[in-house]
Amino acid sequence: MNKLHYTLMALLLALAFATPAAMAQVYSLDSLRAMALRQNKQMAESQAAIDKAHYEHRAARTNYLPKVQAVGTYMRTGDEISLLSDDQKASLSSMGTRLGNGLNAQMGQIVAQNPDLAPLIQQLSPVMGQMGQSLNAVGQGLVDALHTDTRNMSLGAILLTQPIYMGGKIRAYDAITRYAEDVAGEHHRATGQQVILEVDRAYWQLVSLLAKRQLAESYSQMLARLDDDLQKMMAQGLVTRADVMSVGVKHGEAELTLAKVDDALTLSRMLLCQLCGLPLDTPVAPRRNDTDEADSTALLTAGAPADTAMAWAQRPELRQLERATRIYREKVRIARSAFLPQVALMGGYLTTNPSLTNGFARRFRGTWAVGVTVKVPVWQWGEGRYKVRAAEAEAQMKAYQREDALEKVQLQVNQSSLRVAEAQRQYRLALSNRRRADENLRVARASFAAETLSTSDLLAAHTAWLQAQSDCIDARIDIRLSRTEWQKALGILGE
């Protein structure tokens, strides 16, 4: 049982102190780029902007088509609509009485002039009274028939509107939303290139730190062996304690540098994981081929021409500005369209209760209608001209911004090309200095072994060797990063 316990403890300790490289998950640069493009929040936001612009374009295209609307209204009013005035209502209700009074007055005059007709007129008087009442009833019937009862009104309508000519506004909106969709796409491409650049920087920083960690370990082991040799030589009286102490100080500095590199490696891995959407504690490791110096040496012969024409054609920022310039040209057309004639075809079906087509009957009745509406601005004190000129000035501003961007891109392309060339020169010098530092360290060790070189000179040779190795790592990584920035300056990064 004790033997099994000790075996398990040994396994746990082995796992606890296993090297990061043994547990690391190896990723190539292309796979990390792909993960970042899929999972980066900025990429997701720019994709949402593309979807938004796409649907806005589709919405703008519907303006070419007829629009149909349904309208329903209910209204309660305090008074009803009256087709007759109060005097007209009173006149119609009493027209028989007034007619009878007039006839009686006429008959009185006739009897005064012809007394012999008095019996006959007396016989007609009841008949005339009945006629007056009948006429009063007819008049009241007319008043009642013209009663509308419109205090409770309901209205329903289906309206169709087909634009015929809107001064070019519909076509301009169609073009603007199409260009806006292109702008969103180019912004997405620019965001992708920036994400790739950030991933490359984090990746090559990780490669650089791993190489420097390996270098720091080698340097620390070298000093440890030297310290051991000096301890033996001091025992034989060949060197002083001060020489041993100086090597011990250098060894302590090397251990401190190694600890700092380990901390930087942890932060570098976390940054790379954050960019790629991985858990921050993922032990990311670069592909071995990317840490191979021979592969970087091949970059010494790779050219980086300053192809300004390609950059002008491929840079997403310039393509965005070009589309933006077109958008503002279309805005000039929109500003002009507001002061041009506008023609539309209109049609529909209207129904009301009370009915407007059947004597205000309490039922829904309707009718259809078709017509053309024309809107023609006549006089606005020059408002249209001023707005058009303001839109033209804004479009000119965008054109100037694009011209300025073209000049800046040309400068960036030339700078990035020169930076690649400079990085290649620095790497050649670093390789040459490293060869000299290797030879210098070899000679210093041989001279120290022959007791013809002091300890301080040997430590200086070690320091020069360490600096040459570190410069070589920095120069190799700088070539990688400078070429990535050159590709971004041309607008071809990731393509």
Please supply descriptive tags for the structure shown above:
495 residues, alpha+beta, 4-stranded antiparallel sheet, rod-shaped
Would you write up a description of this structure?
The chain is of the alpha+beta class. Helix content is 70%, strand content 11%. It has 14 helices and six strands. The strands form two sheets. Strands 2-3-5-6 form a four-stranded antiparallel sheet, with no helix packed on it. Helix 8 (169-235) runs antiparallel to helix 12 (316-337).
Portion in strands: 5-15%
Low-pLDDT ranges: 1-22
H-E order:
HHEHHEHHHEHHEHHHEEHH
Q: Report the radius of gyration as a whole number of Å.
A: 49 Å
Silhouette: rod-shaped
Indicate the mean pLDDT: 83
Helix content: 55-70%
Termini separation (Å)? 62 Å
Structural class: alpha+beta
Describe the strand arrangement of the main beta sheet, using strand numbers: 2-3-5-6
Number of strands: 6
For the largest beta-sheet, the strand count, sense and barrel status come to: 4 strands, antiparallel
Please report the number of helical segments.
14
Compact description:
By secondary structure, this protein is α+β, with helices and mostly antiparallel strands. The protein is built from 14 helices and six strands.
Note the topology:
Elements: H1 2-16, H2 20-23, E1 25-27, H3 29-39, H4 41-61, E2 67-76, H5 86-93, H6 95-113, H7 118-145, E3 152-165, H8 169-235, H9 241-276, E4 284-286, H10 293-297, H11 308-314, H12 316-337, E5 342-353, E6 365-375, H13 383-449, H14 455-490
Parallel strand pairs: 1-4
Antiparallel strand pairs: 2-3, 3-5, 5-6
Helix pairs in contact: 3-8, 4-8, 5-7, 6-7, 8-9, 8-12, 8-14, 12-13, 13-14
